[in-house]
Every structure is written in C-alpha cells, then in structure tokens.
Amino acid sequence: KMTQQMRDLQLAQARKPPGPSSPNAAKRLYRNLSGKFRVNYTSFDEGSLAGRGEKEKLRKSYLFQSNAALFEAVELQDLDRVQELLKQYSPEELDLNTPNSEGLLPLDIAIMTNNAPIARALLQAGAKESPHFVSLESRSLHLSTLVREAEQRVNELTAQVVNEAPNADCSEKEKQLKAWEWRYRLYKRMKAGFEHARVPDAPTNVHLSVASSSSVQVTFWEPLSVNSAVVTKYKVEWSCSPTFSPPLGEAVIDKLKNLHFTIRGLVSGTAYYVQVSAYNMKGWGPPQASVPPFAIPSNWREYDGRAPRRRGQAEALDHLLGQVKTVHQHCVCHEPCKNQPQSRKHSVSKSLKHLFHPSSKFLKTLKRGLYLTAIFYKDDNILVTHEDQIPVVEIDDTYSCLLMQDFLWFTKVSCMWDEILWLRQCVTVSQSSCSCILQTRFKMLLAISQMQGLLGIQDLGQVFFEPVKDKQGNILIVTLKEVKTNQTFESVRWVPICKLQTSRKSVSSPEEPTALDTLLISVQDKLAYHQQSSHALSPGLYLGYLKLCSAVDQIRVLVPERLPNILCHVKIRSNPNISREEWEWLQKMASVEEPIPVEPEAETSQNHLFQELQVAIKELMTLVNIPLQEAKDFRLYSQEVLDFGGQVSFLLLLPPSDDVCTAPGQNNPYTPRSGFLTLPLQIFELGEER
C-alpha cells in the first residue's frame, strides 16, 4: 500500500508547476514516511476529472501540491520560491499553520535551521510555531525521535541495497535511500540548531509615548544579536511600579509586521512603566525597560482645560440652516412651488420641453462672458457632449462685476449642490431691483440648475481653485468630479481624454488660445489637482509651515502640489498626540526670550520631542528652500495644536510676524522650489474641510 501511495505521490509531483529542484527528485516523495501520515491520493487524468465534474477535487489536489512545495522551498532555503508561494496563495490555501506528518510547520523548519530571512517572511504572512512544542524538553525529544527514526530508516535501506541484486526494485530502494539520507541530514541540522541556540537578547529602541488621555504606545526594534534563534513573538508588560511588582497587565505580540503596541484603558494622570521582552524557541529573553521609563496618559488640552475648537460646530450649522429653511417656508418666494407635488406630470413634461429649448442646450462656442463647465472623469475617460465637447453652460454674457468675490461665493455654494433649488427660490424676490452682484449670483444658481438638469445629476463635484480666462473676455468656472461607479448621465457620453485632445479642432491661435482650448490643454493638470486634493495624510504629528502672500483682492497660501489641501509640512512622528508635559515644555520654550532654549532633561518625552523637532525643522527648511540660519527668528505657534479628526495633528512653524504675509510688490528672496503652488485662502479652507 505504501509503495502504491509513493508512486501516486510521484505522479502528482511530476505535474507540479516548475519549482526549485531538490537534491534528489525522489526526496519529496518520502517526506511523510514516518507512518503517521496517510492520504488517499490516487493518480488521475485532468480531462477525465473535468468530465466527471470533480473540479473541487482537482483544486484541493493542487493546493496540496502547493503546501508540499512550500515545505520543499523552506527545507531547501529557497527564499525567492517561499516569497512567490506566499504571494500567490493565502495562508489558508497553503495550510500554513497545519502541522505535517512529523508534527512540524514551515516556520519550525526555518527557525531550527536558523534561516532568518525565510522565518521573517513566514512570520509576516501569519505563520505560527507548532503547538506540539509545549516545552524545551518536548521539542528536544521530538527532534531526537525524528533523527533516530531517519537514521534507522537509512540503515535499513542501506542493508537492503547492499544485499539485493541489481534490479528495478533495487533502483527504487536506492532512490529511497538517497531521500532518507537527505532527510536525516536535515533533521540533524535542525537538532544542532536547536541545541546551539540561546534565548534572545532584549529588544532595542524601546520607546514609550503618550497616545491619549487613557492610553500609551510602545514601539521597539528587534534584538541586535544575530547569533540567537529567530524571534517569533514579543511580550509587553506594564505596571505602576518601576519594579513591576505587582504587574498590571501584559500582551503577547505575534504579528510582527509592525513592532508597536497601544496599551488602552489607563487612568489619566497616572504614571505607567513599560518593558518589552522577546521570545524564540529557547524561551523568553530578558526584558528591556522603555525610554522614557514611564509615561503619564494625558493630552495637551488638559494644560489649560480648553475644549476642542470644532466641538458641535457642524451640528450647530445644520441647526442654523434648518432654522433658516423653516423661516423661509412661509416666504412668498416659495408660493409657486407649494402645489408642485400635485402637478408632477405637468412639471415633468415642462422639464422635458426645457431640455430641447435652444437656451437649455450645452454651448458649442464661447462669446464674451462668464460660463460654467463640469468635468466628469473615470480612469482615462471624460464626459463630453454629442458634439465631443466638455459640457459648458452660460452664466452671464454681460458680466462686469468683481470676479474673485463672485467666484469665492460660488465655491461656497458648491458645498450645497442639493440645495440649489431652495437657494434660487430665496433670491427671486425683487430680482429686478437687485444689485449687479445679486443678479450675477442668481444667474450662477440658474446655470448650476441648468447643468444639473442637462446631466441628470446634482453633485457637480469640487470647484477648481481658479477660473480659466482668455484674452477675448471669456471666463470659465470649472468643477471636477471623479466617477467611480457605472453611473448614467443624460445628453453626454464617455470618450478617452487623449482622443478628445487630438480630435478637437482649435478655433484659436496658439498665441491667444480661447478659454476652452486652454481648458482642454490643461485638463490632465486639473484632474491631477483634483485627485491630489482628496488624498489624506497618514496618522501622525506634523510640522506645518504657514506662508501667505496678499494681492489686491485676495490672500493666497503656499501649499505643496502633491497635497494641495494641506500646508507645506514634514512628519515629526507617527503618534499624533501631544501630552500635557510636552505642551507645557513648548509653552515654556515659546516664552523664553533667548533664541536658543535650554534642552530638556534626558530620557524624558520632552527631550524626545525636542530632538524630533530639530530634525523636522531642518527638513522643512530644506523643503521650502529657506537657509537654516534664516530660521533662527521663526517661532512655533503656541496657542494650540491643530487637530484633524484625532489621527492627524499639526504644530505650525511661523516666520517673523512681518514676513508671515508677503505684500504686493514685496520681494521674497527665498522662493520655494518647484512642486508648490499658492491657493486662495478661502479655497484652501474649503479643501481642508473636504
């Protein structure tokens, strides 16, 4: 029976995908010859299986081969093959944590042969050690048994090969002998690796920080020593006593992708001591105390007891808007729409006629005036009209007011796309006697409603930070929206952007392009801006640089092109929280008149923040092209920490008060390198909110 099983296994191995070759092709056939593992694995023809509908059996057989291939790659110390299999299959498909016939897992073989790269790759994938090894004695006994059984099998096969005459059976015995000799050497190497290993050294760079008013976070690195066995888990312990007697709690970390742990549910204002120890197959190593040795859960707001600035603001604004709507419900401007639900058929009919009215269609060409265009894109495609043009509707053909004021008002309206009808009804009263500004804004609302009706969608997206102008007096207000689902639109269709750019015939000269031509030429830049402005920062504490410049009608703020919704910045650390002690130190530093404050005491959170700030300031000054000696008069904004959702926080670095905002005509000797732009302050604030 065993001979037939081995032949079947050999047939299955012959059909495996190409992989690393073993020292002997027969080696893999006899990996489970200890007598503990039996599997009904009969040879099969793939076509007949498909014909009989046994696809599930085929899939399981293939996964079984993948599991065997992983064991083989680990035993042969083939790191590339191991990484390939871990990438190609899930841990469940590989049976990554199911012991084989010898009671071993791939991770056991890797750590007992002291192959650190493969062991780390397996640990990253979620591999565990065999549950059979409950103690050092049980592991040692298990390895001794494997070595003894393999040696006995080698001796038996050697005697059979020596005593039998050369024939087919003898050739088969020789193959078995070579396979068992290879396995005997593997087990001896594993046993020697276990015997020579020692417990791991203590972890390094154990750093403790305050994560919130009720939690602390500890981060650490692997032990420096390379002579001990691979570390497979870590233990974090915490206590209110520096001697850890009594201990308050502990946590075992066996997912080693990120070496950090957050201890939650702590008492604010209480000091907690933390230590970390490492584990390998020889047991737990010595603990390493954190630096600083303790941390006190707190938040910078506890320094003066201030409440979050934005607490309840969104709810208050919603309540205020609701009150305004309630007051306007009985306004005369809403009388025409009170009976609207009763005349639904008439309104639908009227809206259909409205679509075919000449003044309701998308524009093909521009004449002097103010226009609205909506760019909808999906992957490399863009929505265009049936005339292969980006949708454009007219706002005002006699526009003569202040553009920036109206444009900024339009950007605020873009936060209320669903309320356009209500806003229109609120400004229809006494329209004939309205000022130029009110008339223009009413026309903007009409144009928005027209664009929404023609496209069949209300959300027109985000407003681009500046209008597109030309020398003919045309002005385009541009909105951008990425479509991520299969959404249907009216009166438009999808075309590739490159096709639109190459097929459109320009009606202007290269020296004086029209606003539409300029828009089409720069559409990729606008799409890139829109995508980048929606990116979020990873959690952490950042140092931001506030630099403004003023013009006649606006103030603009310097931002990076890659993240135009955020100030120029560098990351200080991954922990966004500023503790009370750190904030108290920052307050003292801000009040010192000397240009260079005294460094805080060593092995404190304040000292660690001081070092992090030094590094961050140098990096930020290099980023914005300001010589470091010019930053000696810069200062940290000490009124508050800017908090964004609890996961991202900012400290602001400010130039001297006279240089925070550059006036028109004022020379700025330190111009940032490429990769920056200036946004109108109101546009930046809206982007930050989004």
From TrEMBL:
Residues 202-299 form the Fibronectin type-III domain. Residues 1-26 are annotated as: Disordered. PANTHER family: ANKYRIN REPEAT AND FIBRONECTIN TYPE-III DOMAIN-CONTAINING PROTEIN 1-LIKE, WIDE AWAKE. InterPro entries: ANKFN1, Ankyrin_rpt-contain_sf, FN3_dom, FN3_sf, Ig-like_fold. It comes from the Eukaryota. This is ANKF1 protein. GO terms for cellular component: spindle. It comes from Calonectris borealis (Cory's shearwater). GO terms for biological process: establishment of mitotic spindle orientation; regulation of establishment of bipolar cell polarity.
